[in-house]
């Protein structure tokens, strides 16, 4: 007889598979970029839930591979967050310098646009 817990874990596993397949489909059809936070989030969610489902089922190779995917996804998201925070700090710093220059009568300093740089591989979308 199926218990509520086993049905719930099965649904979680299928949800993870759906997340991973959705991410792959959307990138393949160029609906989202592979460096977008949506793609990373779908992959993270899919890998995490598939890892849970596989480990409960005793499918250890699959669980370990999905756990590695979770680690890679977390690293990508944390790196993106770090780049975004650094860019925000640089913009605030430049804006502050521009205000100081205007007060001193030397004219404004151009503020850097938030365009994607080579140093920020992931962008928040």
Automatic annotation (TrEMBL):
Record domain CBU-0592-like: where: 10-79
Keyword terms: Membrane, Transmembrane, Transmembrane helix
Alphabetical list of Pfam families matching this protein: CBU_0592
Region of interest (Disordered), ranges: 106-125
Protein biosynthesis found in the keyword field: no
Recorded superkingdom: Bacteria
Annotated TM spans: 6-26, 63-84
InterPro entries: CBU_0592-like (IPR058058)
The name this protein goes by in its record: CBU-0592-like domain-containing protein
Organism, as annotated: Georgenia faecalis
């Amino acid at each position: 007889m199926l218990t509520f817990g086993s049905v719930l874990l099965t649904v979680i596993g299928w949800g993870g598979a759906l997340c991973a397949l959705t991410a792959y489909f959307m990138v393949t059809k160029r609906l989202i970029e592979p460096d977008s936070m949506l793609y990373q989030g779908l992959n993270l969610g899919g890998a995490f839930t598939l890892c849970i489902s596989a480990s409960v089922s005793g499918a250890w190779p699959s669980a370990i591979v999905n756990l590695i995917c979770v680690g890679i996804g977390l690293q990508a998201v944390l790196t993106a967050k770090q780049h975004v925070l650094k860019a925000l700090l640089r913009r605030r710093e430049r804006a502050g310098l521009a205000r100081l220059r205007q007060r001193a009568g030397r004219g404004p300093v151009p503020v850097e646009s938030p365009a994607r740089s080579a140093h920020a591989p992931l962008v928040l979308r």
